[in-house]
Amino acid sequence: MEFSAGLNAAGDGVEVEVQLAPGVLAAVDVLADVLGDDILLIQSPGCDQPLQVPLPVAVDPDTGRVRFKRATGKLIFTAAARAKVPGSPATNASSLAALRHPESSSNKMESISSSSHAELLPGAAPCTELARVEEPGAWKSPGTSSVVGTAALEPEEPTAAVVGVEVADTAVMPARASSEVPAPPPPPLPTTTTRSGSEGADSPAAVPGSCSGSAAEMGLTEGPAEDQCPLPDEGEATASGKTSLAVVHQQDSTPAADAAAAAVTPIVDGDGDDCNDLKLYHQFYCDSPSVMLPPCTALAATVMAPPPSPPTGCSQVGVKPAPAQEPVCSRSDDGGVVNAARVAAAFEPTGGTSSRDAGFSFTAPDLPSPSPLPAGLPPRAPPIDCRYLAVANGLRVSAHSYTALLADAIGVRRRGSAAAERRKADKVNEILQKVADTLDAYGYAVLDNYITDAAIKGSRAELRVMEPHYSPGMIWVGKEAETGAQISVSAVRGDVVLWLDDQALNATAFVKDGVRRQCSFLQLQQMLADVDELVFEGLRPRLSYLAGLHRRSDAMMAVYPGKGARFAKHVDNTTMDGRRLTVLTYLNPDWQEKQGGALRLFPIREGAAPVVDVLPVAGRVALFLSAEVAHEVMPAYAPRHAVTLWYFDAGEHAAALTAAKVMPGPSCKPTAQTAATALLRDLLADEASSGIHATLEGCKELGTRVAALELGAQQLLAAVLGLPSVTSLIETMQSLTPESLRMRREELRNMGLGTQHHAPDTSAHV
Ligand SMILES: O=C(O)CCC(=O)C(=O)O
Ligand SMILES: [Fe+2]
Questions:
Q1: How far apart are alpha carbons 569 and 631 in whole angstroms?
Q2: Is the CB of 495 under 6 A from ligand 1?
Q3: Are strands 360-363 and 302-304 parallel, antiparallel or unpaired?
Q4: ipTM of the predicted structure?
Q5: Nearby residues for ligand 2 (ion, Cβ within 5 Å)
Q6: Hey, which of 567, 601, 615, 720 would you mutate to test ligand 1's pocket, going by the most ligand atoms within 8 Å of its Cβ?
Q7: Cβ atoms 82, 97 nearer than 8 A
Q8: 644 Cα to the center of ligand 2, angstroms
Q9: 644 lines ligand 1 (CB under 6 A)
Q10: Does residue 131 have its Cβ closer than 6 Å to ligand 1?
Q11: Would you give the end-to-end CA distance of the chain in angstroms?
Q12: Which candidate, 4, 160, 426, 487, has a CA 20 to 30 Å from the CA of 340?
């Protein structure tokens, strides 16, 4: 194979010319066909990050020569397969291609698109660096770059070839480990922050009946087309100070509130337009973190002074993360491998037998084991023994791909000059650093437009088939990481949820009540991969607090059905269960403030940050520290869709799992859950139907009942009611007056649907 590289005539990049072997040429050619002018994503063995090659590459069909230009970086080109792509070329954002090295020595190509189909052929080629072009900054002065080495490799297989080029330019090296990046000061005061004396002051007024949960109201309408935006010219301003995307309102203008508002620094892409040209960080260094960045990034939506009477203490409640047990494989009727235990747990995480009996199962034809992920890619959600391979359009799904983001990266299709590229990379780093700094200083950060409208719409469409099968969200209480007791009280937590693990995400069909239904979660998978990337590659290296993140929970899809459903104030991880970062992605196009449903985030320490209300608008990603930031979901008056992911710290998680194994807590006992739920049900029920009356006698009876409960039930109740201990629960309950009982009941009802909307049997699962 022949190869040459050198500074191009314009002096703004290195031009590479490669003579490809016939098989490789065919692969590149076909991929170019599949991807249109998107990105070719290539993962080569020994190379940590996939390479992203903007397409089309110019292939001369007569000579087999390929030319392309790189501004900087290391290019390792591994092609080991030939793809056959019938049908029309896919040009949408879901088109993607990846080369990934499988278990052993052979290479495979995976090519996925909504309408195409690839035949995988094994190849064999090591990740070999063939040539290196080293002259840091050379393209700043044309003519000084040089090829310092060339080599050639003839692949053993005619269909496999490797070409490598490394071009160094230290000017665009991204920030790496936090130790290498001096932490900049907290975000500066935004000079153009808009403030208003009235907006965002109170919980939004209820608009009962305004949303009934139809598909249209759930926001499944077509979003606007993506802007096509040119790259900024050389001379264009790099920072506009534009704050239009960071709607920052402040209720009270006090010095403390001013300072707090100032902390919420709007982050903008800085190129003076509304375009998504910061979507991509084009990472060429295989051994560096690849960074994807949201366009038009902004911080939290509404800054408010703390509410006059903040809700009572944080409940020790959280959400049951993925179960820790290893799955047990079994075989389904139609021959597909089914991990019944895990699927049941994932789909109906109530821990109760009824849900397991009801039993979902996912089905897929037998396929060979998937290849392990290439080293260095973000860790995936819980490892599973019986992995499912999705069969979507006859193609295997790559567990990780950057392509959905890349496909939007107009900056790649219309590459600017080296200087423009460098500016872009710098800006991306700057924004990521701001996000990390904000998270570090205040415990939370919010990114807007991280997920595209198309991806939101696609994911919502994929989830629609599952929506009838969501279960009431569980409040997870107790010290047992991942195995803790769960209790469902819709007044405290009014959403319904669906847990999706890797296996479920990769399934093509599910069976419920003996009925088989098709499903596909490709878009959703991509969205999750994009969030993983933000966390693992964008933030983990920048925050020592996140340095130990090793994996995340399964994805929890949640729908607050409207009608005032909410989730009471709580902290996700109060028991050192391993969860360090909570990341929410909202899927609600056209969400209006009057629909409520804001995520209210409370400061880590009194006065340390503003209380912010973050509306669940589509594409927005909210991040906060799971063990420190109290938060609640304000009553939602329209169906509100969100995806929650929890990222685990390796050390804390391991310790929690060990602790859970050796000392299962009393709250695990089903009897405790039943007793606690029964009492809550009575407490919440209308007086007429409840055993507890707001009279002196009723109060006395309640105090006696609570004191007589088993410890586990008392612990659960204390947690749900936001009381710090069992002692305090008993004291509180024994000193109730008719008045305070009525207030407590009202308070609980106001937290959500209450029994007016939910029958007791649906609001209590034990
Ligand atoms: O949906 C949200 O905004 C937050 C949900 C939440 O707090 C949780 O599931 O723990
Ligand atoms: Fe939460």
A1: 5
A2: no
A3: unpaired
A4: 0.99
A5: 572
A6: 567
A7: no
A8: 9
A9: yes
A10: no
A11: 66
A12: 487
Structural tokens at position 126 = 């090591």
| Closest approach atom of ligand 1 to CA 632 | 7
DSSP structure string for 607-626: TTS-EEEE--BTT-EEEEET
Tokens 């692969």, residue located: 27
DSSP 386: S
Beta carbons of 534 and 604 less than 8 angstroms apart: no
149: helix, coil or strand? Answer: strand
Cβ burial of 103 (10 Å; 0-12, 13-18, 19+) is: exposed
Q: In b/e form, how buried is each residue of 275-294, taking b as 16+ CB within 10 angstroms?
A: bbbbbbbbbbbbebbbbbbb
Ranges assigned E (strand) in 230-329: 302-304
Ligand nearest to the Cα of 556, by number: 1
Q: What pLDDT does residue 349 have?
A: 25
- Cα gap 507→529, rounded to integer Å: 17
Name the strands in the sheet holding 360-363, side by side, starting at the edge strand that comes first in the sequence.
Answer: 360-363, 509-512, 515-518
Distance separating alpha carbons of residues 465 and 459, to the nearest angstrom: 11
Amino acid at 606: E
By most ligand atoms within 8 Å of CB, the mutation choice from 644, 646, 720 for ligand 1 is 644
Q: Which atom of ligand 1 is nearest to the CA of 640?
A: 1
Answer whether 328's CB lies under 8 Å from 340's CB.
Answer: yes
Q: Tell which residue, 24, 211, 226, has the closest CA to residue 107.
A: 24
| pTM, full prediction | 0.44
Q: For 332-371, where are the E strands, in sequence order?
A: 337-338, 360-363
Angle subtended by helix axes 726-734 and 696-708, to nearest 10: 160
Peptide bond before 56: cis, by omega within 30 degrees of 0? yes
Give, using CA atoms, the residue closest to atom 8 of ligand 1: 319
Task: Report the atom number in ligand 1 closest to the C-alpha of 558.
Answer: 1
DSSP secondary-structure letter at 204?
P
Whole-number Å distance, alpha carbon 707 to ligand 1 midpoint, is 31
**Is the CB of residue 643 less than 8 Å from the CB of residue 527?**
yes
Give the Cβ contact number of residue 272 at 10 Å: 15
Could you identify the residue written with the tokens 């993360």?
321
Quick one: which ligand is closest to 493's CA? Answer: 1
What are the 10-residue block averages of pLDDT along the chain, 766 residues in total? 46 47 43 38 39 48 52 33 25 20 23 20 27 26 21 26 25 25 31 28 29 28 28 24 17 37 28 24 18 22 29 29 28 23 25 27 36 36 19 20 30 50 61 77 81 90 85 51 47 72 80 79 91 88 93 90 85 84 96 94 75 88 90 93 94 78 51 77 68 83 89 74 72 86 68 31 21
In short, whether 319's Cβ falls inside 6 Å of ligand 1 is: yes
Residue nearest to atom 5 of ligand 1 (CA): 633
What gap in Å lies between CA 217 and CA 495, rounded to an integer? Answer: 17
Q: Which atom of ligand 1 is nearest to the CA of 599?
A: 3
A 10 A CB-CB count for 241 gives 12
Backbone angles phi, psi at 679, to 5 degrees: -65, -45
Report d(CA 715, CA 407) in Å as an integer.
50
For ligand 1, is residue 572 a contact (CB within 6 Å)? yes
In eight-state DSSP terms, residue 474 is P
Q: Is the C-beta atom of 575 inside 6 A of ligand 1?
A: no
For residue 518, the cross-strand partners are 509
Closest atom of ligand 1 to CA, residue 556: 9
Residue 258's SS3 state is helix
Strands 337-338 and 485-487 come out as unpaired
Q: How far apart are CA 530 and CA 292, in angstroms?
A: 8
Query: How far apart (Å, rounded) are the C-alpha atoms in residues 279 and 169?
Result: 21
564: left (phi over 0), alpha (psi -120 to 50) or beta: left
Which atom of ligand 1 approaches the CA of 631 most closely?
7
3-state secondary structure of 681: helix
